[in-house]
Design a protein that fits this description.
alpha/beta, 6-stranded mixed β-sheet, 3-stranded antiparallel β-sheet, 9 strands, globular, binds pyridoxal-5'-phosphate
Length: about 280
């Protein structure tokens, strides 16, 4: 009998985006693409499509506990990745759950707004990310706007990006990756990694596209999987960035607004297969 190789179980705690581009659907697709087994707990049901967010219903703490406890009781969680955590109370609850267990990899993606700019979490939640979750993080993955809001800095220069990164380390994060995908640069997408061993800048060619819905969720999930598989951050980041660039490049062009990525780059994509004759 063939013994199957165990896939690392990676847990996402995030919002549900029914249009499939962001949130837990993007996370679990990414986890499958990276050979991990994705399990998920929903923090909020958002109402949205590729054009805009129409509203949301946040789940209460009891519903969150009742999703998570059976998972913690049953699986060995190799990595946890957090996304949209809508209230301070939810942030504190997730932090307490992480502290009570030894989860080897903790990736905190501090989601504050949707791709098109709607607020997804309240101000207290933003403060709680910094106070409660950042100190537990193996890596935090804010974009420039999120980094500025969380570190309370107006980011206008690369020096400011560095100062914001330092604020995350002072809070106790193991590492911070500030992503520059949203910055106005026609040529490059540049990210800054800072950890105890210093800083590294990662630049990849910018893929010009409106199909960028869920890039933050996808990057953080890819990193959680690669770290769960034992890769170092400095090896994992270029792989995750290349994956995002290809997933944008090959985006399926769905919806009329900010479209989703192609998470399965090499899978069956709906083309009629050649007949064998
Ligand atoms: N999480 C949820 C539930 C969302 O709806 C969104 C954006 O709409 C995000 C996270 C953030 O998306 P992105 O990965 O594009 O930053």
């Amino acid at each position: 009998m063939n013994k199957s190789i165990k896939q690392p179980v990676v847990l996402t705690v995030a919002g549900f985006d029914p249009s499939g581009g962001a949130g837990i659907l993007a996370d679990v697709k990414t986890m499958s693409a990276f050979g991990c087994f994705g399990v998920a707990a929903i923090t909020s049901i958002t109402f949205q499509n590729t054009q805009r967010v129409f509203g949301k219903v946040d789940l209460d703490i009891e519903s969150l506990r009742r999703q998570l406890m059976p998972l913690f009781d049953d699986f060995e969680i190799a990595a946890i990745k957090t996304g949209m955590l809508p209230t301070a109370q939810v942030n504190r609850e997730i932090a307490a759950m992480i502290r009570a267990r030894s989860i080897p990899v903790v990736v905190i993606d501090p989601v504050l707004t949707s791709t098109v700019g709607d607020d997804l979490v309240d101000d207290d939640a933003a403060n709680a990310i910094m106070e409660d979750l950042v100190p537990l993080a193996s890596v935090v993955t804010p974009n420039i706007a999120e980094a500025g809001r969380l570190a309370r800095l107006d980011i206008g220069s690369t020096n400011d990006v560095r100062r914001a990164a330092e604020a995350f380390l002072r809070r106790g994060a193991g590492a911070v990756l500030i992503t520059g995908g949203d910055v106005d640069d026609d040529e490059l997408s540049t990210d800054l990694l800072l950890d105890a061993s210093g800083s590294t800048v990662y630049s990849t060619e910018r893929v010009k596209s409106t199909n960028t819905h869920g890039t933050g969720c996808t990057l953080a999930s890819a990193l959680a999987c690669l770290l769960a598989r034992g890769l170092s951050l400095r090896v994992a980041i270029p792989i995750a960035k290349q994956y995002i660039a290809a997933a944008i490049h090959q985006a399926p062009g769905l919806g009329t607004g900010n479209g989703p990525l192609k998470h399965f780059l090499f899978g069956f994509d709906g083309e009629k297969p050649d007949s064998p004759d």
